[in-house]
Specification:
The complex is a heterodimer of chains A (about 110) and B (about 110).
Chain A lengths: L3 E3 L3 E4 L5 E7 L5 E8 L3 E8 L6 E2 L6 E7 L2 E6 L8 E8 L7 E2 L3 E5 L1
Parallel strand pairs in A: 2-11
Antiparallel strand pairs in A: 1-3, 3-8, 4-5, 4-9, 5-6, 7-8, 9-10, 9-11
Chain B lengths: L3 E4 L2 E5 L4 E7 L6 E7 L6 E7 L4 E4 L2 E6 L4 E6 L8 E8 L3 E3 L3 E6 L1
Parallel strand pairs in B: 2-11
Antiparallel strand pairs in B: 1-3, 3-8, 4-5, 4-9, 6-7, 7-8, 9-10, 9-11
Classes of the chains: A mainly beta (about 110), B mainly beta (about 110).
Protein backbone atom coordinates (compact mmCIF):
# COMPACT_ATOMS: atom_id res chain seq x y z
CA UNK A 1 0.00 0.00 0.00
CA UNK A 2 1.42 3.36 -1.05
CA UNK A 3 2.04 5.66 1.87
CA UNK A 4 2.38 9.36 1.28
CA UNK A 5 2.89 11.66 4.23
CA UNK A 6 3.10 15.42 4.56
CA UNK A 7 4.96 17.19 7.33
CA UNK A 8 1.99 19.09 8.79
CA UNK A 9 -1.80 18.89 8.55
CA UNK A 10 -2.27 22.51 9.59
CA UNK A 11 0.18 25.39 9.43
CA UNK A 12 -0.16 29.09 10.25
CA UNK A 13 2.52 31.48 9.03
CA UNK A 14 3.03 35.22 8.86
CA UNK A 15 3.29 37.24 5.66
CA UNK A 16 6.89 37.33 4.45
CA UNK A 17 7.98 34.16 6.22
CA UNK A 18 9.79 31.39 4.36
CA UNK A 19 7.68 28.25 4.47
CA UNK A 20 8.72 24.65 3.86
CA UNK A 21 6.20 21.94 3.10
CA UNK A 22 7.53 18.41 2.93
CA UNK A 23 6.20 15.31 1.26
CA UNK A 24 7.59 11.83 1.80
CA UNK A 25 6.60 8.64 -0.01
CA UNK A 26 7.76 5.13 0.78
CA UNK A 27 7.12 3.31 -2.49
CA UNK A 28 10.13 4.28 -4.57
CA UNK A 29 8.03 6.23 -7.10
CA UNK A 30 10.01 8.44 -9.44
CA UNK A 31 7.40 11.11 -10.20
CA UNK A 32 6.21 13.54 -7.54
CA UNK A 33 3.85 16.51 -7.71
CA UNK A 34 2.69 19.51 -5.70
CA UNK A 35 -0.84 20.86 -6.12
CA UNK A 36 -2.84 23.53 -4.39
CA UNK A 37 -6.57 23.07 -3.89
CA UNK A 38 -8.95 26.02 -3.69
CA UNK A 39 -12.77 25.98 -3.66
CA UNK A 40 -14.18 26.32 -7.15
CA UNK A 41 -10.77 25.93 -8.77
CA UNK A 42 -10.03 22.26 -8.21
CA UNK A 43 -6.45 21.09 -7.97
CA UNK A 44 -3.83 23.14 -9.77
CA UNK A 45 -0.32 21.89 -10.45
CA UNK A 46 2.46 24.00 -8.95
CA UNK A 47 5.59 21.95 -9.67
CA UNK A 48 6.49 18.38 -10.44
CA UNK A 49 9.61 16.26 -10.49
CA UNK A 50 10.34 13.30 -12.73
CA UNK A 51 13.24 12.13 -10.59
CA UNK A 52 15.88 13.21 -8.08
CA UNK A 53 17.20 16.72 -8.71
CA UNK A 54 14.77 17.20 -11.60
CA UNK A 55 11.95 19.72 -11.49
CA UNK A 56 9.45 21.20 -13.90
CA UNK A 57 7.10 24.12 -13.53
CA UNK A 58 3.43 23.37 -13.45
CA UNK A 59 0.60 25.75 -14.20
CA UNK A 60 1.01 28.13 -11.24
CA UNK A 61 4.68 28.16 -10.16
CA UNK A 62 4.92 31.86 -9.29
CA UNK A 63 5.94 32.44 -5.69
CA UNK A 64 7.01 28.82 -5.18
CA UNK A 65 10.12 26.72 -5.58
CA UNK A 66 10.84 23.04 -4.97
CA UNK A 67 13.64 20.75 -3.94
CA UNK A 68 14.13 17.05 -4.66
CA UNK A 69 17.41 15.90 -3.13
CA UNK A 70 16.23 12.37 -2.37
CA UNK A 71 13.87 10.16 -4.28
CA UNK A 72 11.39 9.80 -1.46
CA UNK A 73 11.21 13.48 -0.49
CA UNK A 74 9.80 16.45 -2.40
CA UNK A 75 9.72 19.83 -0.72
CA UNK A 76 7.66 22.87 -1.64
CA UNK A 77 9.10 26.22 -0.62
CA UNK A 78 7.29 29.51 -0.31
CA UNK A 79 10.14 32.03 -0.40
CA UNK A 80 8.09 34.87 1.07
CA UNK A 81 4.60 33.78 2.06
CA UNK A 82 1.69 35.98 1.06
CA UNK A 83 -1.97 35.89 2.05
CA UNK A 84 -2.99 34.69 -1.43
CA UNK A 85 -1.00 31.53 -0.77
CA UNK A 86 -3.45 30.51 1.93
CA UNK A 87 -4.68 27.19 0.59
CA UNK A 88 -4.72 23.41 0.91
CA UNK A 89 -1.50 21.91 -0.46
CA UNK A 90 -1.48 18.34 -1.70
CA UNK A 91 1.46 16.29 -2.83
CA UNK A 92 1.14 13.23 -5.04
CA UNK A 93 3.35 10.64 -6.65
CA UNK A 94 3.24 7.92 -9.28
CA UNK A 95 5.34 5.33 -11.00
CA UNK A 96 7.00 6.21 -14.30
CA UNK A 97 4.80 5.08 -17.17
CA UNK A 98 1.74 4.61 -14.99
CA UNK A 99 -1.16 7.01 -14.73
CA UNK A 100 -2.58 6.76 -11.24
CA UNK A 101 -1.42 9.41 -8.78
CA UNK A 102 -1.42 8.76 -5.03
CA UNK A 103 -2.12 11.74 -2.84
CA UNK A 104 -0.88 12.77 0.57
CA UNK A 105 -3.29 13.93 3.31
CA UNK A 106 -2.75 17.61 2.56
CA UNK A 107 -1.44 20.61 4.49
CA UNK A 108 -3.85 23.45 5.15
CA UNK A 109 -1.69 26.56 5.17
CA UNK A 110 -2.97 29.86 6.49
CA UNK A 111 -0.89 32.99 5.90
CA UNK A 112 -1.86 35.93 8.07
CA UNK B 1 -2.62 23.77 -22.64
CA UNK B 2 -5.33 21.44 -21.46
CA UNK B 3 -8.49 22.90 -19.93
CA UNK B 4 -11.07 20.78 -18.10
CA UNK B 5 -14.56 22.04 -17.30
CA UNK B 6 -16.76 20.17 -14.84
CA UNK B 7 -20.53 20.46 -14.20
CA UNK B 8 -22.45 20.80 -12.04
CA UNK B 9 -20.56 22.42 -9.19
CA UNK B 10 -23.05 21.03 -6.67
CA UNK B 11 -25.49 18.15 -6.94
CA UNK B 12 -28.09 16.98 -4.45
CA UNK B 13 -29.88 13.67 -4.93
CA UNK B 14 -32.13 11.44 -2.88
CA UNK B 15 -30.68 8.22 -1.63
CA UNK B 16 -31.23 5.53 -4.25
CA UNK B 17 -31.32 7.95 -7.17
CA UNK B 18 -28.62 8.23 -9.82
CA UNK B 19 -26.05 11.01 -10.09
CA UNK B 20 -24.27 12.17 -13.23
CA UNK B 21 -21.28 14.51 -13.37
CA UNK B 22 -19.98 15.75 -16.71
CA UNK B 23 -16.61 17.02 -17.87
CA UNK B 24 -15.26 18.43 -21.10
CA UNK B 25 -11.62 18.76 -22.10
CA UNK B 26 -9.85 20.78 -24.75
CA UNK B 27 -6.70 18.87 -25.72
CA UNK B 28 -7.40 16.09 -28.19
CA UNK B 29 -4.04 14.52 -27.25
CA UNK B 30 -5.29 13.68 -23.74
CA UNK B 31 -5.56 9.94 -23.36
CA UNK B 32 -6.30 9.21 -19.71
CA UNK B 33 -9.35 10.34 -17.74
CA UNK B 34 -9.53 9.55 -14.01
CA UNK B 35 -12.16 10.41 -11.44
CA UNK B 36 -11.16 11.13 -7.85
CA UNK B 37 -13.37 11.19 -4.77
CA UNK B 38 -12.46 13.38 -1.81
CA UNK B 39 -14.36 12.93 1.42
CA UNK B 40 -14.40 15.76 3.92
CA UNK B 41 -10.96 16.20 5.48
CA UNK B 42 -9.43 13.36 3.49
CA UNK B 43 -7.12 12.96 0.53
CA UNK B 44 -8.41 12.50 -3.03
CA UNK B 45 -8.65 8.85 -4.01
CA UNK B 46 -9.01 7.36 -7.45
CA UNK B 47 -12.38 5.66 -7.89
CA UNK B 48 -12.39 4.88 -11.61
CA UNK B 49 -10.48 5.79 -14.74
CA UNK B 50 -10.74 5.28 -18.47
CA UNK B 51 -8.24 5.29 -21.31
CA UNK B 52 -8.88 6.88 -24.66
CA UNK B 53 -9.25 3.57 -26.48
CA UNK B 54 -12.31 2.62 -24.42
CA UNK B 55 -15.79 4.16 -24.54
CA UNK B 56 -17.19 2.93 -21.25
CA UNK B 57 -16.02 1.30 -18.05
CA UNK B 58 -18.04 0.07 -15.11
CA UNK B 59 -17.20 -0.90 -11.56
CA UNK B 60 -20.19 -1.93 -9.47
CA UNK B 61 -22.34 1.19 -8.95
CA UNK B 62 -20.03 3.59 -10.78
CA UNK B 63 -19.40 3.93 -14.49
CA UNK B 64 -17.55 6.32 -16.73
CA UNK B 65 -18.28 7.06 -20.36
CA UNK B 66 -15.98 8.80 -22.83
CA UNK B 67 -16.83 10.50 -26.10
CA UNK B 68 -13.51 11.37 -27.75
CA UNK B 69 -15.10 13.06 -30.74
CA UNK B 70 -17.02 15.49 -28.55
CA UNK B 71 -14.20 15.60 -25.95
CA UNK B 72 -16.40 14.89 -22.99
CA UNK B 73 -16.63 12.22 -20.34
CA UNK B 74 -19.07 11.54 -17.54
CA UNK B 75 -19.28 9.80 -14.19
CA UNK B 76 -22.45 7.88 -13.39
CA UNK B 77 -23.29 6.70 -9.88
CA UNK B 78 -26.35 4.50 -9.53
CA UNK B 79 -28.30 3.66 -6.36
CA UNK B 80 -26.60 6.46 -4.46
CA UNK B 81 -25.92 6.03 -0.76
CA UNK B 82 -25.12 8.60 1.95
CA UNK B 83 -21.47 7.49 1.91
CA UNK B 84 -21.25 8.66 -1.72
CA UNK B 85 -21.45 12.24 -0.40
CA UNK B 86 -18.10 13.84 -1.24
CA UNK B 87 -16.35 16.12 -3.71
CA UNK B 88 -15.68 14.46 -7.06
CA UNK B 89 -12.95 15.63 -9.43
CA UNK B 90 -12.50 14.69 -13.05
CA UNK B 91 -9.15 15.06 -14.75
CA UNK B 92 -7.58 14.70 -18.17
CA UNK B 93 -4.02 13.71 -18.89
CA UNK B 94 -1.71 14.14 -21.77
CA UNK B 95 1.76 14.71 -20.35
CA UNK B 96 0.32 15.95 -17.05
CA UNK B 97 -2.94 15.73 -15.15
CA UNK B 98 -5.34 18.70 -15.34
CA UNK B 99 -8.28 18.68 -12.93
CA UNK B 100 -11.79 20.01 -13.16
CA UNK B 101 -13.09 22.39 -10.48
CA UNK B 102 -14.94 19.64 -8.61
CA UNK B 103 -18.55 18.68 -7.87
CA UNK B 104 -19.96 18.57 -4.35
CA UNK B 105 -22.34 15.61 -4.25
CA UNK B 106 -24.85 15.43 -1.40
CA UNK B 107 -26.93 12.30 -1.02
CA UNK B 108 -29.97 12.93 1.15
CA UNK B 109 -31.38 10.05 3.14
Amino acid sequence: DVKVTQSSRYLVKRTGEKVFLECVQDMDHENMFWYRQDPGLGLRLIYFSYDVKMKEKGDIPEGYSVSREKKERFSLILESASTNQTSMYLCANKVVGAYEQYFGPGTRLTVT
Amino acid sequence: GENVEQHPSTLSVQEGDSAVIKCTYSDSASNYFPWYKQELGKRPQLIIDIRSNVGEKKDQRIAVTLNKTAKHFSLHITETQPEDSAVYFCAASGNKLVFGAGTILRVKS
